Each structure stands twice: as C-alpha cells, then as structure tokens.
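Morning!

As promised:
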Amino acid sequence: MIDGFSIAEIGHFTLVLALCVAAVQAIVPMVGAARNDAAMMAVAPATAVAQFAVLVISFAALVHAFVTSDFSVLNVVQNSHSLKPMLYKVSGAWGNHEGSLLLWVTVLALFGALVAFFGRNLPPGLKARTLSVQALISVGFLLFMLFTSNPFTRAFPPPLEGGDLNPLLQDPGLAFHPPMLYLGYVGLSISFSFAVAALIEGKVDAAWARYVRPWTLLAWICLTAGIMLGSWWAYYELGWGGFWFWDPVENASFMPWLSATALLHSAIVVEKRDTLKSWTILLAIIGFSFSLIGTFLVRSGVLTSVHAFATDPERGVFILMLLVVAIGGSLALYAWRAPTMQGGGLFRPISREGALVLNNLLLTVASAVVLIGTLYPLFLEVTGGDKVSVGPPFFNMTFVPLMIPLFIAMGVGPYLSWKRADLYAAMSRLKVALAVTVVAAGISLVLLYGDSGYAVIGLALSAWLIAAAFSELLQRAGLGRTPVRNIPGRLFGLPRSTWGMTLAHMGVGVLVAGATGASLLTTEVITVMKPKETIQVGPHQLEFLGAEEVRGPNYVALRGNFAVRDEAGGKPVALMSPENRRYVARGQETTEAAILSGLFRDVYIALGDPDGEGGITVRAYRKPLAPWLWWGTVIMVIGGLVSLSDRRLRVGAPKANRSAPAGPRAGPRAEPAPAE
Amino acid sequence: MNRLFFLLPLLLFAAMAGYFFVRLGDDASVVPSALIDKPVPQIDAPPLIEGKSGIKTADFTGEVKVLNVWASWCVPCRAEHPLVSRLAQTEGVPVYGLNWKDKKQAAVAWLNELGDPYAQIGFDESGRNGIELGVYGVPETYIIDKDGRIRYKRVGPLSPTILKDEVLPLIRELKQ
C-alpha cells in the first residue's frame, strides 16, 4: 500500500506540473512568433513533448491505481471492484468522468507532441503558434480537472471494496470505444490550432492546407473507428438490434465526424485551387467546436441520456466558460481576420471543386440538422414549451434525404476534372456504373417487391457508390486505353491517396447497404418461449433448448440456448446463447445478445425477462446485410489509413512542390487559377 | 455587409451558449408537476396480490406516506428497488406501490424475486390511475403528507444521494 499511496500522489503532482508546462507552452512561443524571436519559438516543440511525457506519467499513475485496486483513491472506489477482470480494471481508468478527462488531455498533449515531432518542416511561426494554441486548450482542461474533477482525490478512510464500473461499460467494444473516439475528437484540435494560428498569421495557402490535411485525416480515421465501435456495442449490448439511435451522445460524436469529412474535402480545394480558404478555416473551427460541445453535452447533464456519466452543474459552468473562450474566441478572431483572406478564382458548378463544394454544403446542412434535432427539444423547453422528443422520425425525414444527393454526387465527383469539367464525358465514363446500378435496383425490386420501396433506393445507391468508385479506379489505371494485362501493374502504381479515396467511397457504399438491410429489411419476432418450442425467423428456425444459470467473474447470468436451423426440420447449423447478466456489486443488469453473423445476414437473439411460468421473453431478428455496416466502416478506415500513408510522405515535403509527386495521375494538375 | 457575414458564426454560437447557460443546472428529471401541494387525485386501483389491499385516494391520509409507481419491465425500477426497500424497512416509512401498465404474473414474479417492500399495491393495468397522477414514465416517487396532499414528485429512479438529501429530510419535516 505504501507505494500505492505515493504513486497516486505522483499522478496528482504531474498533473499540476503539466499545467505549468502547458502555460509556458501557451505563452512563450506565441510572444516569440509575434516578435519573430527564434529562441522563444523553439520553446514550443520542447514543451509540447515535455507536457506529453508528464501527462503520460500522470495517466500511468491512474491506471496503476485501478490495476492494483487502490481503494484509497476515491475514483477507484467509485468505479472499480477487486473482482473485476483485468481488462476492465484498466479500462475502468477512463470509464468515468475524471479518468476520461485525463485521457482527453493526455491525447491532446500527444497530438501536440506529434506535431512537434513530425512538423520539422513547418514554417517556424506557424508551428509555434499552432502549438501555443494547442497548449491553451490543455491549460483550460487541466484547470477544469484540478478544480472540479481531480482523478486522484483521496477517499478516507479507504473502504475494503469498490462500487464497480457501470456493467454496461464492461465490454471489450466499450473498453476501446472511448479512447478511439477521443483520439478523433481531440485530433480535430490540431486542425483547430492550425486554423487559429493561420488566422493570427493572416495567411492561408496551399501549403497550409497540405499541413492540415494529414492531421484531419488521422482524426477522421479515429472518429470513424470510434463511432463504429460505439455503434457495434449498442448493437449487441443494448439488446434491441438497433445500431444507431440518434441518441444525443451519438449525435455529439456524429457532428464532428460530418464536419471533419467536409473539412477533409474542402482542404483539397484549398490545396489544389487556392480558394475556399475562409470556409475551410471555419470548418476547422466548427469541427473542434463540435467536439467540445460533445464533451459538454456528455459531462454537464444538459442532455440526459444513457451515456451521461457525470451530471453536475458546477462542472457545467466551467465547461461552458471553456466553450465560450475557445469557440467564441476563435469565431471572433475569424470574424475579424477571415474577411481579408478571400482568394483564388471563381469556379464553375460542373467541376471537381464544384462537386466538393456541393459535398461541403450537404455535409454542413446535415450536421446543422443533427445539431437542431439534438437541441430542439430542450430549446422548446427553455422558451416555455413542453418536453418533446424529436427522435428517429425527425432524422429519417431530414437527414436521409440529404444523403441521397450526396451519394449520387459522390459517385460523379471523382470523374470530374478540376476547373472546368465536361459532364457528358464524365457520364459516358460512368456508363458501366450506371448499368450496374440499374441492374442492382432491378434485382432488389424483384426480391423486395411489396416490402420496402426505400430499401430499393438504398440498395441502388449502395451499388452506385461501389460501382462508380471501382470503375473510376480501373479507368485511372487505364482501362480501355491500355491492354488489360497492364492493368494490375498500373493499379499498384496509382498514388495511395487515389486508393484511399476509392476505398473510402466504396466503404460508404457497403455501409449504406448494411444500414438499409439492418433498418428496413429486418424480420422481427418477439414472443414468450418455453423449452423445446421453435420459432421461424425468415428462413431460419430457432429452437429454444432451455435456460441455465451461469457464473461469471463478477456477475451471474441467465443463459438461453438456441439451436439454429437453416430450414424447418433441418440439421442444426449453430448454437446461439444470449445472456442476461446481473452484476453483483451494483445489482445492475445487462443484455448480451447472441449474434450469428454470415456473409449476407445476421441472426440476432436477445433474452428478455422470464414470465414466471417457465417461459421467457425472446427477441429474435434476422437482419439482412447487417454485417456490412461494420465491414463498410472498416473499409473506410483502411481507405483513410492508405491515404494517410501517402500523405505522410508529403507532410515533410518542402514548400511549393506544385510539380506532381511521382506516379501517374489522371486529370489536369491544379494550378492556381487567375481571377476571372 | 461582407463583414457581417463573417460575424454570423459568432452570433449563432452566442445564441447557443446563452441557451446552454439557461439550461444549465436544470435536472431534466425534475418535471414540474401540476399536482404539487394538491390532494391526491381520484385513484382506485384493485389489489395486485390476493389478500393484500389495492390503493385508493382515501388511503393517503393520517400519516406521511410514499407512493412509488413501478413496472416489472422497467430496468431503472429494478435499480431503485433496494432504496425503496430501505425506505420501507430501515426508515419505516409506509410505501405504497402502483404497478403501472404491467402483466400481473410478471409483476408478482418480480416481487418474489426482489422482495416486496410495499404496504399495499394497486394494479393499474390500463394506466388509468397513472393518467390521474400525471405519470410520465416509471419509476416515479411521490411523498404525500398527513393531509393527503402531494408534496414531492420524482420522475426517474431514486439514488442514494436523492434519498439522503431530498426524500428523507422532507419526510422527517412532514412528520413533525
């Protein structure tokens, strides 16, 4: 225990130290950049790395307290239990308010350190200012932690046993969901810091866009993966078979994703066409603002939801002040400096940049819709109205129609050349993709006749996205212009950013099919079953073999066993065992659905409560294409990673490398257009 | 004009921040009830369990009582059950139950599994009595004074803090 005591103190001490380092990092380089003092600017990278190192020690101290079940630390008492499996002891460190904030600042500092490390070729002024802004955010969050949410607060006298982590959170999906999401949320801080630094400098050019893009891409990858993990968790843990609930906290992670996606695309326009600058800066600010608001929504109890793990108005006031300074301050700076940054030429609607602007427009409107849908119910209440619930119908009515033109444009966009494109030529190159789409629509119309018209649209869009992306890749590799045997070699010769884009767009197509199947084509049976009874779910027959009590390390569970047959009376193909767990320490219950995943469908069983007469409520679903949800996201993430591996080579490239990097490239190279 | 355009994001944010500020500290589960300080409305629910009384308006006079609305299908009810038991057994407050929109067997099985802290339980299968009381959703907890007036209403599960800081002090005060 002795060393346990001192280690928690080290954690607390390093937290204070990190605050001091961050304060230096915030002030000295900013002053240095204003005075053009190289020595002062050089403080930035050193302090950024130091701040990260100090916070890693602090975070390690917290993890140590959880792993050793040091019940003299209040946070451990409230959120851990000595019987808990090791994985959840570790993840318990960030499965609570204070710990997750410590993780948040640690990640923030990690990104600062990464910029310090990889940004060797950044102009010194931009680098110093970026790191300084980054440190300002750190200072805000560290103050917040030390004043209102210190993870190292002591409990005296130390109790013998802890209160356990919320059992809903004791799950492998959720052990990694928050860190991943935080990497994404916080990763957007870099784009934000770059944007604020550029506003202070008053200069945004193609080089700036090239510096920002890889960081945005990295954040986007993490956000995508984080949202997927959360959605997957909801899918099998909440027991209702849904993958997306338009829950305020889900929306809070979705809004930064939408704006990060828009930012990724608009930064390309800045890089290639030297225009759309102030818009891109605004998107960078908005992206991180959404991340901050997301934190606020979760932490302050402004919106209550299953996710909210801290509801405390005092913290809320602090976070609100933080928001006002960070977002209000940066937007005020924007209003002041951005008007001078107009640049570049006009552009035509039918062009690559025209398509990207449409993309931005639709994505921004979509995030505004999500924001309104999330806040509207509460807004009504403040203005004296009733409590209303907006819920999924609102989002299905507004968000989904916005996605349809976006997906159509997404297929066409990559075929358009910069500046001035020929729509007819693009359409003729899209012939095959169009044909594939029509055939897919026809097949789904026949298969789903009378089922769901919307599903036909969804599947057709999915086919369109995949076919358009794939055929564009083949045409870039020279299909139709060179003998087919050359194609594989040329495919490998394509730049990785091209591959990345194609994969990401195809991933969206796969995801759309999954979402269509999982939401519109689901077969559902909810009934009370007794042992030996069978039910029919689509083509599958499920036989209830019986239920048994099983014991886990810190829970007891009621487990139901089901035999699955592909046709009535056939041989069983699988045994499925959903569970209802009851966690000992808190007496809380969770549902563990059993999912049988195939190439084209999921069979999903969740247990309800026993009816007291030997029967048990069973919810069984057949969800066609549901696994594609996860595969689609994985493909998108791989696309992002592939593109990032290309970009990384270019981050360090010297300025003004407008001549193309090695490798064949379709379409004319971008040159800054003269003002027309 | 152009400048104003660039101010727009800031103005929108200012509106939002102002709105957050107003919202802050409101607990979404504190719902203004029209019935606070009013007598218990006309309710009459038949017994859930044979041999134990149901509940009706006249039951709520003479003593400080707690009315807890619950259902077997409601997970938060399960979570607050130990606290309701504590209220009844350790603190000695008579707790009346209203079983809301539930199946009789499921409700009885639930009580057999978790224990029955209630002095009397009304069975409100249709939710008719719930409408009289203005039930938003289960669980809900009401404190009713000696004169049969509703003095407190909680929507959502009780927590140890709420029990300690709100419910018990009020009951003690009302008992005097």
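The first strand of chain A starts at residue 523 and ends at 529.

Hope this helps with the figure draft.
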